[in-house]
Each structure stands twice: as C-alpha cells, then as structure tokens.
Amino acid sequence: MGQGILRAARGDERFAVLALCRAFHAASGIPFAFDPAHASRAAQDHIEDPRKLCLVLEVNGALRGVLAASTSISPLAPVRIAQELVFWVDPQHRGRGSRDLLTAYEAWARAEGCAAAGLSNLNDPRVARFFAGAGFALCEQKSLKILE
User: Fold this and answer.
1) One pLDDT digit (tens) per residue for the chain, 148 residues
2) Cβ-proximal residues to 88 (8 Å cutoff; 6+ apart), any chain
3) Which single residue of 12, 62, 89, 120 has CA 20 to 30 Å from 144?
4) Alpha-helical runs (H) found in 29-95
5) Quick one: which of 66, 76, 74, 77 has its CA closest to 24?
6) Is 148 within a domain?
7) Which CATH number characterizes residue 39's domain?
8) Is residue 106 part of a domain?
C-alpha cells in the first residue's frame, strides 16, 4: 500500500467522491435509499463552494477517503460550528489516513473561525472510540423515527 496524499477534491473527481459516499451509505445503516443524483449535487457543491470542505485521501492514484463539511452559525449562540457531512475511508486504508483527514478538518474549521467542529458516528462504538481518541466528546444523541 502506498503513502496517502491528503488534498482538496477537484471538480473532475465528483464521481470518485460519489463512489466513496455510496460506500459510506452502504456501511452506515442509514434507513433511506442512496440517491446518486442528489448525492452527486451535494458532492459537487462541497467541491466547488469555497466556504465548504471536500478533502480526499488519494493512494496510488485512487481516491480512498473523503471528508466533506460545512459551517453554520449555531441557532442558540453566536458561534460558528463546523459539521461533517460524510467521513469515509476505505477499510484497508484506515489508520493514519483517517487521522490525517480529521486533523485537516480541524485545521480548516479553525481557519473558518469555528468555535467547535462536529462529527457523526452513526452508533458505531469503534468510530466513537476513534473520535474520542482524537479529542471529540459525545455531546448529543439523535433518535430517528421513520414516518410512513
């Protein structure tokens, strides 16, 4: 396995980013069908909008990880918060690449003037331990009810 390169995604990589998002969705247990057209628009938005983030981990010329995020002002306090939309690294490339993506995400959030950066772990205890090891603390849990 070659050394990974962390960098901003390019516009011509939307479909490679979309493939990583599809892998994330499949592994996440999200109870909604993956919609490629909708996800493609979101990926393109995060790649092109200079106020948003779309980092990729490239290994041997192929994209093996992605972290996309944006910022907003908290509705409860006048502070800017960064929130990740998707964070996925192919299982065979986890470890240092995952840590590097998190470090770059934090640096970006600081540069954007954020007071905090958030991550979602979708109820996976391994991911929760990884995030805790990187200094992220659980602050909220969400419950979801499918409305039929």
Assistant:
1) 457 899 999 999 999 999 999 999 999 888 899 999 999 999 999 999 999 999 999 999 999 999 999 999 999 999 999 999 999 999 999 888 999 999 999 999 999 999 999 999 888 888 999 999 999 998 888 888 989 8
2) 20, 21, 23, 24, 27, 65, 66, 67
3) 89
4) 36-48
5) 66
6) no
7) 3.40.630.30
8) yes
* Pair of tokens at residue 13: 């990589």
Q: Examine residue 140 and state whether it is found in any structural domain, yes or no.
A: no
Q: Is residue 127 part of a domain?
A: yes
Which helix (H) or strand (E) element contains residue 84?
strand 80-89
Separation CA 79–CA 141 (nearest Å): 21
Query: Which residue type does 132 have?
Result: A
pLDDT at 123: 81
Q: List all residues 6 or more positions away from 28 whose beta carbon is below 8 Å from its beta carbon.
A: 122
Q: Is 29 helix (H, G, I), strand (E, B) or coil?
A: coil
- Which residues are registered as beta bridge partners of 66? 56, 88
Residue 124, helix vs strand vs coil: coil
